[in-house]
Amino acid sequence: MRIPLLLSRTYLFSIKQRSFISFINVLAFLGLLIGIASLICVTSIFNGFRLLVRDMLLTIDPHIRITLNEDIDCKALEERVSKYVTKYEFNESSSSKIIIGHREVTQAGMILGIETFHTYIKKTDNKVAIGIGLADKLGVKKGDTISLSTPEMIDMAISGMALPTGIQVVIDSIFQISSGVQYDNSFIMADLGFLRDNGLVGKQFADLRIENPDNVYELMKSLKADKTIGTLQIESWKDLHHELYSTMEFERNMSFIILGIISFVSAFNILIAMWMMVKSKSKDIAMLLSMGASQQDIKWTFMLQGLVIGSMGSILGAGLGVLLCYGQESYGWVSLPNSIVSTMPVSLSYDIVLMSIILGISVSSIAGIYPSILATRTNISEQLRHE
User: Fold this and answer.
1) For 205-229, b where at least 16 C-beta lie within 10 A, e where not — what string?
2) Residue 18 — φ and ψ, nearest 5°?
3) What is the DSSP letter of 335?
């Protein structure tokens, strides 16, 4: 292996090498470096936005939501849940359709009842929190009074030939989760006890929160195997917004594939450079073969050149991508004015870094196969005839 290493180093870094071939090698190296760095940065940005949306939604959504029915007692259900998990929070909640009125404006929406103290609501009688999108539609602000009515209340009022009055509540706060999520555009949150007292409770749930959201599916598997809990509808935090999370995952994967094509373009440049080098060094190859060098040595000489370009470009590109991600995470170089976050969110995954390096080295190694095979087919007598 010493001869291929020596020859590949000589051909790759020789200052006497033809400038055009050297230029193509440099282009391939830079293309691979930029491609791998872009791959890591863009994927990290998608991961950052995904985790940001997840954390925002989990301020409202539980890690696991169990839909209750009339036959299930919540206390008994909590006792059964405690058999499968030690550290957790167990709360009741509800969700129902409502008609919201303010002066001459009415909007359909959903009201979410929460049992315990929450980030957006205080445990007081008629105070509610409203999504910013819904507040804009109604033209309301903090401190305004709105009326809440269920479809059943409206039907009863109409059948009794009376105007529906609704339940009067005061807006205590306005929340914003994310501009692309329905909570901002159609949800109101209130204390669950207040909703029960006023007949505004619809579907009822048992909400479960654990220490690590990534352990949700393991716990769900145990709950579904339980004879009592398994008969109920059990949803994870991903199931509650399945379309949103699936779309974000799809966008991240597609960006990885599209940017990965840059690596294949760079590999094509490597193939062209190696092919031209084989043609320009055909007499040298014939001389080496006539002096006793094996075809395997010649083959590895050119394969190692592609491997060296790929390894250097991939490793340096990965290092550049990691540095850019750490810089954005630490110093917030790219800001997002008029957004719910001040800077571009970034979440670096070392699995993606490793995959990017492997991808770059693999395509570069593959690109060197054909030129190396072509080099072993050099006709010795033809090349040395005029020497």
Assistant:
1) bbbbbbeebeebeebbeebeebeeb
2) -60, 135
3) B
Residue pair 373/299 in contact (Cβ under 8 Å)? The answer is yes
Residue type, 75: K
As a whole number of angstroms, the distance between CA 271 and CA 31 comes to 13
Q: Is the distance from CB of 81 to CB of 220 less than 8 angstroms? A: no
Report the pLDDT value the prediction gives residue 346, as an integer from 0 to 100.
95
Whole-number percent of the chain with pLDDT over 90: 41
Q: Calculate helix-pair angle for 2-13, 295-331, nearest 10 degrees.
A: 60
Burial degree of 267 (CB within 10 A; 0-12, 13-18, 19+): buried
Q: Taking the CA of residue 342 as centre, how many other CA atoms within 13 Å lie in the half-sphere pointing to its CB?
A: 5
What is the per-residue pLDDT for 160? 65
Contacts 24+ apart (CB under 8 A), 214-218: 216/63, 216/64
Percent of the chain's residues with pLDDT above 70: 87
Mean model confidence pLDDT for the chain: 85
Sign of CA dihedral 56, 57, 59, 60: positive
Rg over alpha carbons for the chain, rounded to the nearest Å, is 32
Distance from C-alpha of 281 to C-alpha of 100, rounded to nearest angstrom: 81
Bridge partners (DSSP) of residue 149 are: 99
Q: Band of the pLDDT at 248, cuts 50, 70, 90?
A: confident
Q: Cα angle vertex 166, ends 163, 170, to 5°?
A: 140
Our CA dihedral for 336, 339, 343, 346, rounded to 10 degrees, sits at -110
pTM, entire model: 0.81
Cα distance between residue 204 and residue 191, in whole Å: 13
Nearest to 167 by CA among 194, 122, 198, 139: 198
Burial 63-98 (b: 16+ CB within 10 A, else e): bbbbebeeebebeebeeebeebbeebebbbbbbbeb
Buried b (16+ CB within 10 A) or exposed e, 333-367: eeeeeeeeeeebbbbbeeebbebbbebbbebbbbb
Nearest to 194, CA basis, from 126, 257, 251? 126
What are the beta bridge partners of residue 204?
94
Q: What's the rounded Cα separation, in Å, for the pair 205 and 190?
A: 15
Report yes or no: 99 and 200 within 8 Å, Cβ to Cβ: no
351's enclosing H/E stretch is helix 350-367
